């Protein structure tokens, strides 16, 4: 099988649902940041840590998506458990996911910063994904020769940059409706370990500052998390629709 053949097969797999006139199916991996002994940032209220808020928010998003036909959800953690970053990547790749979203809250040394932001990989970090795949994070491809599998891994990884940026921008726009435009901190690029090695578009979102005197208290409220969850779901559905 030549590289051209592989590209044609990948294109056909994307076009088939559209040709058939069906709503494209989407398998989403939702990653609740931190967990277990990795508590994440401390909140404005003593004893409240990031791991708790991210899990509550992720469960809300998962429940809302479960009600949408054609959406399948995979969670990297179900409860307050420690899951390594590499395990999260391997889980997403093994699930043959179409989209990966890692959900976090933010913190600052001064405890005075506010706002939300989304993160995607830099081109250099995206290139590092090749090394991650060679370390065993690549998805299983039963019956596919290793050399062809490596080509597919590279195609999927390199092709995820633009969709990741599009999804990150959509997330930011949706969260503006919750927090307001002045609190938008933009789409940023970095080398987040939980995104390195993914063979699908992936974004890390910081939904707000848990250690801020006002914002931290709001994040602890169910109604705020409901609004954020609705925004994340809206962005996911917009992504599925090609927007």
Give an overview in words.
It is a single chain. The protein is of the alpha/beta class. It has a single domain (25-240), classed as 3-Layer(aba) Sandwich (Aminopeptidase). It has helices at 3-19, 50-66, 85-94, 123-137, 146-158, 161-179, 215-219, 222-240, and strands at 26-32, 71-75, 99-106, 116-121, 184-190, 202-209. The chain has a 6-stranded mixed beta sheet. Helix 2 (50-66) crosses helix 8 (222-240). The two termini are 33 Å apart. The relative contact order is 0.19. Mean pLDDT is 86; it is low at 6-21.
Q: Which helices and strands appear, and what pairs or packs with what?
A:
Blueprint: H1 3-19, E1 26-32, H2 50-66, E2 71-75, H3 85-94, E3 99-106, E4 116-121, H4 123-137, H5 146-158, H6 161-179, E5 184-190, E6 202-209, H7 215-219, H8 222-240
Parallel strand pairs: 1-2, 1-3, 3-6, 4-5
Antiparallel strand pairs: 4-6
């Amino acid at each position: 099988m030549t590289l051209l053949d592989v590209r044609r097969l990948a294109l056909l797999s994307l076009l088939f649902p559209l040709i058939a006139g069906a709503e494209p199916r989407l398998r989403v991996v939702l990653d609740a940041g931190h967990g277990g002994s990795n508590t994440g940032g401390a909140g404005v209220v003593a004893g409240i840590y990031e791991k708790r808020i991210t899990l509550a928010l992720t469960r809300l998003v998962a429940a809302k998506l479960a009600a949408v036909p054609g959406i399948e959800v995979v969670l990297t953690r179900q409860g307050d458990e420690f899951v390594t970053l590499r395990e999260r990547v391997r889980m997403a790749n093994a699930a043959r996911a179409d989209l990966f979203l890692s959900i976090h809250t933010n913190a600052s040394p001064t405890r005075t910063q506010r706002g939300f932001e989304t993160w995607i990989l830099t081109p250099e970090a995206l290139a590092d994904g090749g090394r991650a795949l060679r370390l065993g994070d690549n998805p299983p491809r039963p019956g596919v020769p290793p050399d062809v599998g490596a080509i597919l891994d590279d195609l999927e990884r390199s092709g995820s940059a633009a969709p990741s940026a599009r999804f990150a921008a959509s997330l930011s726009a949706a969260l503006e409706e919750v927090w307001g435009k002045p609190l938008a901190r933009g789409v940023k690029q970095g080398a987040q370990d939980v995104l390195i090695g993914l063979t699908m578009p992936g974004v890390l979102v910081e939904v707000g500052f848990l250690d801020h005197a006002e914002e931290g208290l709001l994040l602890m409220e169910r109604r705020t998390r409901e609004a954020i969850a609705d925004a994340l779901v809206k962005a996911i559905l917009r992504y599925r629709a090609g927007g």
